[in-house]
Design goal:
alpha/beta; Rossmann fold; 8-stranded mixed beta sheet; 28% helix; binds S-adenosylmethionine
């Protein structure tokens, strides 16, 4: 099974059964970069399926090379925009973990609408996590950290829990770089709660033009 998942229609749910064993637990990493975290975790947990989402082609190719080097078949990657992937493609209430490590912080006020965390992402995230499934978040950017804390605190579908430990073995490429520069790392985690009567479908995504995913020239 190829590790890179090709999608012909980014608004149709993935045919997961044709890609991985849907009886097994699923863990997803948003903005997985070159894949060092997710591919090592996949190698250590052959009983589970792993899916990376990354929009930069060169990083997706590095992910694919790591998977080939490790000789594993339980790590997959989608070269797609994360919000669309969560909104349309992922299976309902199936992921036991979602990792978002060092997402682009978009520090300037006029850029902040590009940030991943907001109402649209939390709606889709809750829909994809199983009850009790967790979002693990880490960033070097204090302001973004507090903004994300605020988003979750205002959402009754999630409860704050202790984040996973961060020994050097789980550091991502960016985490190694930021720690080497002496930057602080803030981490937190939230668990998805059962919400009886919550809708089981999301309305079509209407994204303002400035939030539309952008392709780079020459990318596949
Ligand atoms: C700062 S890097 C961190 C990479 C990796 N998580 C790490 O810690 O080493 C952010 C990554 O997220 C990807 N990314 C940013 N926004 C994304 C989005 N909306 N959808 C998919 N990937 C995204 C970028 O291409 C980049 O590889």
């Amino acid at each position: 099974m190829a590790c890179r998942i090709r999608v012909s229609d980014p608004c149709k749910p993935l045919e997961c059964a044709a890609i991985y064993d849907t009886e097994r637990p699923l863990e997803v990493e948003v903005g997985c970069g070159k894949g060092s975290f997710l591919t090592s975790r996949a190698a250590a947990h052959p009983e589970c399926e792993f899916l990376g989402i990354e929009r930069m082609l060169e990083r997706v190719r590095s992910f694919e090379r790591k998977v080939a080097r490790l000789g594993i078949s339980n790590a997959h990657v989608l070269k797609l925009e994360a919000l669309y992937t969560f909104h349309y493609l992922l299976p309902l209430h199936h992921a036991r973990r979602v990792y978002v490590f060092f997402p682009d912080p978009w520090p300037k006020r006029r850029q902040q609408h590009h940030r991943l965390f907001g109402g649209l992402f939390l709606d889709a995230l809750w829909m994809r996590l199983e009850t009790g499934g967790r979002l693990e978040f880490a960033t070097d950017h204090e302001d973004y950290f507090h903004a994300v804390e605020k988003c979750f605190a205002a959402d009754a579908r999630f409860r704050r829990v202790d984040p996973m430990p961060r020994p050097p073995e789980v550091w991502t490429e960016f985490e190694r770089m930021f720690r080497a520069q002496g930057l602080p790392v803030h981490s937190a985690a939230w668990e998805a709660l059962d919400v009886p009567g919550a809708p089981s479908e999301l309305p079509p995504l209407t994204v303002p033009p400035e939030l539309e995913p952008r392709e780079r020239e020459g990318e596949e």
